[in-house]
Amino acid sequence: MSNRVITISREFGSGGRTIGRKVAEKLGIPCYDAELVQKIAEESGYTAEYVEEESEHTEGSWLSTVLSDRSMGLTNQDKLWTIQSKVIIELAEKGPCVIVGRCADYVLRDKADCLNVFIHASLEKRAERIVKEYGETDDTPEERVKDKDKRRAAYHRFYTDMKWGDAKNYDICLNSGELGIDKCVELICSLY
Amino acid sequence: MSNRVITISREFGSGGRTIGRKVAEKLGIPCYDAELVQKIAEESGYTAEYVEEESEHTEGSWLSTVLSDRSMGLTNQDKLWTIQSKVIIELAEKGPCVIVGRCADYVLRDKADCLNVFIHASLEKRAERIVKEYGETDDTPEERVKDKDKRRAAYHRFYTDMKWGDAKNYDICLNSGELGIDKCVELICSLY
After folding, report:
1. Closest-CA distance of chain A to residue B124, Å
2. Would residue A61 count as lying in a domain?
């Protein structure tokens, strides 16, 4: 098994982004995360902020947008999905890399040799992490984590028709809250 | 994290039982699988065959038994669940070990320091495996795998109220069909 692309899906606050970066650094390959947003922005003509807003990270009411606008044809989010998919495939074709989020596992399912990873942790550990690491100041970090979970799961479900967090969709799922970030990095690298 | 008990939940045909045995051998600790059935049989007074039949491995129509008999009080399966739970807790208290199946992750959730593992593989790989390794001669091994999946999922759901195969219920989930049995063994041992 010669995996060329590592896709990392992750629950909000689980440290999946950090794990992705560390894995890429250790393996000496690029990690696409913020860079991906930048490329999608360039291709779409939208600003990076808008791309971020309309993608899985959205805080806004994209669900209502989806429900209300889709009858009128493609929504902006649908258009971004198409561009995002194209950019992900191009990056994967360029060479070995780590791609964090954005349903890359699904987009690349018939296009590249992937190691598909899912990172999760308990609600408590993730709430603790977003306060400590991301400097979140929300009074109810658990609620914020739950809200993000719901949005990502709905986005994932809508575009991939796969159940978010179902073990069978991944090659390896890791509980970063129990195993620790560094152990997760080590395990993923050992599979590359 | 000093894990003392490794619980292995697994899809039928994924090689989880083999992985459990190899992990235990490598770590020099006991693996409870068939031995567990034997102990439950001794405690309950039933034969090992009956225990096997009425537990997660059942081929019979336990679901209909559950539905029809529970109104009359505890079913045999409920009684076996109680004995099984007691035996699992006793074994875990004896010392470090590997326990395969039987919802040990759930039974030990507040009782022992566990590393909870889930092993899965694609339907195709599992069907291939049951024919090759277990000598299954069924004309439609995929159907048999699917049937077993349904029974285990229903049993698990009924007694634990947790979703079978949901990544968040485990510390690590591994696709043995993609990673291979030996790699799974190596990864689990490296976490102990």
Report:
1. 13
2. yes
